[in-house]
Amino acid sequence: AAAAMAEDRALTVVTCTAPVNIAVIKYWGKRDNDLILPINSSLSVTLHQDQLKTTTTAAASRDFTEDRLWLNGEETDVGHPRLQACLREVRRLARKRRGEDTAPPNLSYKVHVATENNFPTAAGLASSAAGYACLVSALARLYGVEGELSEVARRGSGSACRSMLGGFVQWQRGERPDGRDSLAQQVAPETHWPELRVLVVVVSGEKKQVGSTAGMQTSVETSPLLKHRAEVVVPERLALMERHIRERDFEGFGQLTMQDSNQFHATCLDTFPPIFYLNDISRSIIALAHRFNAHHGRTKVAYTFDAGPNAVIFTLADTVAEFVEVLRRSFPPSTNGDQFVRGLPVGSATLPEELLEAVVPEPLPGAVRYILHTQPGPGPQVVDDPKQQLLGADGLPRHRS
Predict the structure, then answer these.
(1) Which residues are 115's β-sheet partners?
(2) What is the rounded (10 degree) CA torsion for 173, 179, 180, 186?
(3) What per-residue confidence (pLDDT) applies to 223?
(4) Same structural domain, 28 and 123
(5) In 11-76, which ranges are E strands?
(6) What CATH code is carried by the domain that includes residue 233?
(7) For residue 393, is it within any domain?
(8) Where is the Mvd1 C-terminal domain (predicted)?
(9) Cα separation, 238 vs 50, whole angstroms
(10) Residues 200, 163: one domain?
(11) Is the pLDDT of residue 1 over 60?
(12) If we measure between CA atoms, which residue out of 340, 331, 341 comes closest to residue 361?
């Protein structure tokens, strides 16, 4: 009995990591703001956690007096409605699946949660997607909940449901008003297209003037183009994109990725008042990609932009070195020459004179802060190494040097 009591008082701790994802068929606009139900389905590529990930440790103890949350070392408001929705939903599933009598003892305990990103929020990558996917994964493990969790992650952030799976993922719009069928499904695993590479081109860390949530709402209310896109354009594009991925057809995949990105930003322009997420550097990168492809006579690189100025470039492994050199010549690093390219190693490339003349414009020094080289990767992972835990034995954040 003494042993059981000691265990009851002990901390239950789980640590998980979760990935960022980049949509190639965009989600923009909700039909239900509380349940985060989208007006159209979307499709994304999950990026590898070796380069980009969120780590979350969740702990439960009878000694905790309240739920608490720390983000990148700073305590934040645990009362945030979306956060509460995820907590409530995971606890509800734990009760339902285990039955009230066999529910884990820690279900009635308060939880402490610590979360860290290994990439700057300024990178403009949807950190909320990785964050909520990680939170839901860790809480589900803590409470012994298994099975379909993308619906729970969606309650935190729409795109988080896509971060619950690796590789190529479709978030299905669903039809039900309660959102139970608005779920993520894997189109193909991360191993499906081994040559595919991703370059995240970070141009600016300025806070955007219109946040995604507010921007979407205004677009839904004022853009006829967005309505047409959701009802007519996206369903056709999804089927086409799935085929390109299945066939590993980079030409088709790349072209459609660029067209969909452009149309998403067109709906932002069609919003009233208009929203501008791209800046001059974004537009320079778009023009550069088209010149590069025209020079080669085919689609060798493809850009996509989310609600921000940073470019995400898809390409194949054999093109990375050449295109990174094109970027380096077009946007020479002002200071951090050694840190300009991060992530997976990039070989060196010598650019032929005719490519330089046709493709590389007047250089814009310092316009690009850095480039991150990565590839498709798996969904959330459980971390078994206790050294990786973000909370100490007292349930408070560890001071990690």
Answers:
(1) 56, 71
(2) 30
(3) 98
(4) yes
(5) 12-18, 21-25, 30-32, 37-38, 42-46, 54-61, 68-71, 74-76
(6) 3.30.70.890
(7) no
(8) 198-383
(9) 28
(10) no
(11) no
(12) 331
Q: Say how far apart CA 68 and CA 337 lie, in whole Å.
A: 40
Chain position carrying tokens 């414009």: 361
pTM: 0.94
Residue 336: predicted pLDDT:
57
| pLDDT tens per residue, range 136-158 | 999 999 999 998 999 999 999 99
In this structure, are 210 and 251 located in the same domain? yes
Find the angle CA(308)-CA(209)-CA(333) to the nearest 5 degrees.
50
266 and 316 inside one domain: yes
Question: What is the CATH number for 48?
Answer: 3.30.230.10
pLDDT band at 87 (very low <50, low <70, confident <90, very high): very high
The boundaries of the domain holding residue 97 are 11-189+382-388
pLDDT at 210 over 90: no
For 177-191, write each residue's pLDDT tens digit.
999 999 999 999 999
Position 44 in a domain: yes
Distance separating alpha carbons of residues 359 and 87, to the nearest angstrom: 51
Same domain, 181 and 268: no
Give φ, ψ of 400 to 5 degrees.
-95, 125
Given this model, what pLDDT does residue 103 score? 66
Determine the pLDDT at residue 245.
Answer: 98
Neighbours of 348 (CB within 10 A): 8
| 265 within a domain of the structure (yes/no) | yes
Provide the edge-to-edge strand list for the sheet that holds 341-343.
Answer: 301-304, 311-316, 196-202, 370-374, 341-343
The whole-number pLDDT of residue 8 equals 46
The confidence score (pLDDT) of residue 2 equals 38
